[in-house]
Amino acid sequence: MFSDESLSTDVLRKLRSVVGDEHVRTDPGVLEAYARDATPLFRAYPQAIVEPDDAPQIAEIVRIAAEHRLPVIPRGSGTNLCAATSAQQGGIVLTTARMRRIEEIAPAELLARVQPGVTTAALAKAAGEHGLFYPPDPGSHTVSTIGGNIATCAGGLRGLKYGVTRNYVLGLTAVLGTGEIVATGGRLWKDVAGYDLTRLLTGSEGTLGIITEATVALLPAPETTGTGLAYFTDLEAAGRAVTEIIARGVLPATLEFLDRRCMDAVDAYAHLGLHATAGAMLLFGDDGGDDQVAASLTRMRQACLDSGALSVEIGGVAEAEPLLAARRCTLPALSRLGSLTILEDASVPRPRLAEMVARIDDIARRHDIVIATFGHAGDGNLHPTCVLPSAEDTEAIERAERAFGEIFRTAIALGGTITGEHGVGAAKLPYLAERLGPEQTALLRRIKSAFDPAGVLNPGKLGS
Amino acid sequence: MFSDESLSTDVLRKLRSVVGDEHVRTDPGVLEAYARDATPLFRAYPQAIVEPDDAPQIAEIVRIAAEHRLPVIPRGSGTNLCAATSAQQGGIVLTTARMRRIEEIAPAELLARVQPGVTTAALAKAAGEHGLFYPPDPGSHTVSTIGGNIATCAGGLRGLKYGVTRNYVLGLTAVLGTGEIVATGGRLWKDVAGYDLTRLLTGSEGTLGIITEATVALLPAPETTGTGLAYFTDLEAAGRAVTEIIARGVLPATLEFLDRRCMDAVDAYAHLGLHATAGAMLLFGDDGGDDQVAASLTRMRQACLDSGALSVEIGGVAEAEPLLAARRCTLPALSRLGSLTILEDASVPRPRLAEMVARIDDIARRHDIVIATFGHAGDGNLHPTCVLPSAEDTEAIERAERAFGEIFRTAIALGGTITGEHGVGAAKLPYLAERLGPEQTALLRRIKSAFDPAGVLNPGKLGS
User: Fold this and answer.
1) Domain-by-domain residue ranges, chain A?
2) Average pLDDT for A374-387
3) Same CATH topology for B9-95 and B224-328?
4) Are A192 and B424 in contact (CB under 8 A)?
5) Among the four A41, A320, A460, B388, which has the fewest Cβ within 10 Å?
6) Which stretch of DSSP H or E encloses residue A146?
7) What pLDDT sits at residue B5?
8) pLDDT given for residue A445 in this prediction
9) Can you give the pLDDT at residue A5?
10) CATH topology of domain A224-327
11) Across residues A146-158, what is the average pLDDT?
């Protein structure tokens, strides 16, 4: 359907008349920079980068694209890990880099209204200045954008207690594939007038509409935060502790795990003096009032000890940040071990976490690759990460890809899913039909057509 | 499109072969019972009532209906307040009355899997037996079904702190208008594999699919609950207190208001000794650990006093239930005042609550009707309720309908919506296009077609 040639003078002229000459980029260096996002092994060149300023410009760009049958791929900071912003079929990458305005923080309504290019961290900071709090905190929060967070329904470290991006999106303005601008939802926490387009656009990876503004809910900032660290002989014991924590009525803000390989990598990177022989660690934390946090940490500590923890340390606010930083550095720490790092994402029901990690280890062994696994134990959301010595070793890359295929199928077999929070993109589309079945796959296509009849919005991804 | 004649012998024979003779009902007494739900002024006779037992039977019924172009209207307990289960175009009312099984409570996964006919209260009770808690609690929770709650995205008294039904639906099995059975989502709190069909079906009022099973999230039950009661000279002062509570970082489980008319009605009904002259009351409550609840109530008490409350009383667990029961009896208390009670639903941004109530009072005066207003102050969600002396006075009914039309338009003008939690149904469809605009209304129709190409699922409602 789509061409990979240079854009015609006609198209370029039309695009330039919408956003200005300097905001249509076609120089090879720029196209190269947008040829991939954070997904290894996926590289595809767009034909142009356009940098619009507002929703009417985006509507115009989409109309031009629809007229000329050109893909439009919306992109925030390009931190996506499943090639969701990859220009697989060429076309125009539409970046929200110029749309970084926080339009409004409304404390009495507990909400913020922002342009899509605002970073997660910038929103969190602006909310913090009003004593408020934006809970979703994906790993890339310092650079990732709210538009991208919403397009992928980003998660983070606080999912168990606070939910994911979906839970905070109140209203969206979006440009459909028809070039129409719709405003869904609004400023209200309760609004059932019509189908829930706000949540449908959330996680649709730019295939149904391009988000041009978002209204998101904020919460009062918790008074304090506390964190604890528990070591276990193996992940099975850590998994028992997770079950025990939940069974004792604690729904903590943080409940993260690292396997031994991740611990080694993190300790070599950040010199935290982690336990030298434990098979797994659990990082747990909570927030709220002082007494509440203390009570919660004490209960989690006891649940860990009763589940056979080797040791448990509890820290106050001062220790919380370094510990969470250690967890956040797992990916860069692992990346140092090789030349190519493939970070993946799968979820299983919480009680099957340890079983899933054991199955991952077995799959890695059989395919003769190294996979380290960490993730959000409270959500059953794992990030198996393969580190390969060379980015050129195509044979090893193929083994890794076969291993991940088995991992996704295993997740499905255990009642889980192929992605908890990273998304489907181009990378996981081959597994989506296995997860959803043929009827639902066909339904996704019909929904896609309802929003984007010409199929110009991020083709080759969800709904394809 | 649809016929209002009796069903043909052929159709009846087919339906009977699916569910058994005794579960296809066409006797006039039964049709009469299903000719209306809890919405006054809407009466429409279905041609048959069918009582299926499982998803494959429902799929068969939908296929028969599609073949014969007959509407299928799914129905739980019929507590809907916007004629969402009304057979406006005849057809088959499909009741979930026989599907009342709680399939599973899985404490380690914090979830329940239920058939759609299970009542909200039955689920809450079953969860409670495991120390767990299902937060959504619509006014009709003792009789309303989970299927109906999901179909309408029901709210309740705990929306501010806990969110609404949407926040608790993890996975659904549903029969599409094609007769296909799809399973969306699953048992996971984080799953972004595909468009968010789970949330799209939630609130779709049976127009996109018929829910045959639901997996819902549960939370650990809070340790304790506390409630307080504050009286104010007028609703403006109560509104200031709401803003002040939020500004002090409290996001309480309960924050309900009653205007003077509601207070009079409730006191006459339940003899609670409410303040005799206050213009408005605020019922506030919170749950959690003992210290946490005490701290929260103290802060809310102070926020009320600082906002000019006439008096504030704080109660413990013992007082919480009677106070919440008083709030819950507002509707029956108001209903005693006349022969026809029209309970409505609108939302505005929280800071505009008092302004909205003042506008409602003005609208009621101008149309010479009595409207009492209560609702969820924390959510900006109001229930203006009109009580008419006679159900036969068509002239007064018309005045009430004109008044509500103005109320919905005023809510939209204040940045609000035509329904916060009751839904659109047949009753509010005329206002939906005003809220959504023509592009989004057309988009809703296209989405409807993607799920239900023959248009047999609850026609004349959302997506029509």
Assistant:
1) 9-95, 102-220, 224-327, 338-452
2) 95
3) no
4) yes
5) A41
6) helix A146-152
7) 66
8) 98
9) 66
10) Alpha-Beta Plaits (3.30.70)
11) 95
- Give residue B151's region: left, alpha or beta (phi > 0; psi -120 to 50): alpha
For the domain spanning B9-95, the CATH number is 3.30.43.10
Would you call A189 and B163 a contact, using CB atoms and an 8 Å cutoff? yes
B37 touches chain A (CB under 8 A): no
pLDDT confidence of residue A325: 82
List the 68-97 stretch of A: residues with Cβ below 8 A of B.
none
Backbone phi and psi for residue A75, each to the nearest 5 degrees, phi listed first: -150, 135
CB contact under 8 A, B440 and A200: no
- Per CATH, the number for A338-452 is 3.30.70.2740
Q: Of A69, A100, A55, nearest to A210 (Cα)?
A: A55
Residue B1 has pLDDT above 60, yes or no: no
Interacting residues of A261 by C-beta distance below 8 A, sequence separation 6+? A334, A370, A371, A372, A373
* Helix (DSSP H) and strand (DSSP E) numbers for chain A: 15, 19
Does the beta-carbon distance from B188 to A443 stay under 8 Å?
no
Taking Cα atoms as reference points, which of B91, B13, B96, B83 lies closest to residue B45? B91
d(CA A415, CA B404): 48
Query: Closest Cα partner for A345 from A169, A202, A205, A154?
Result: A154
Instruction: Name the pairing type of β-strands B92-95 and B72-75.
Output: parallel
Are the C-beta atoms of A282 and A304 separated by less than 8 Å? yes
User: Considering only CA atoms, which of A178, A164, A216, A171 is closest in space to residue A197?
Assistant: A171
**What is the fold of B102-220?**
3.30.465
Cβ contact A424–B193 (<8 Å): yes
Gap from A14 CA to chain B (nearest CA, Å): 25
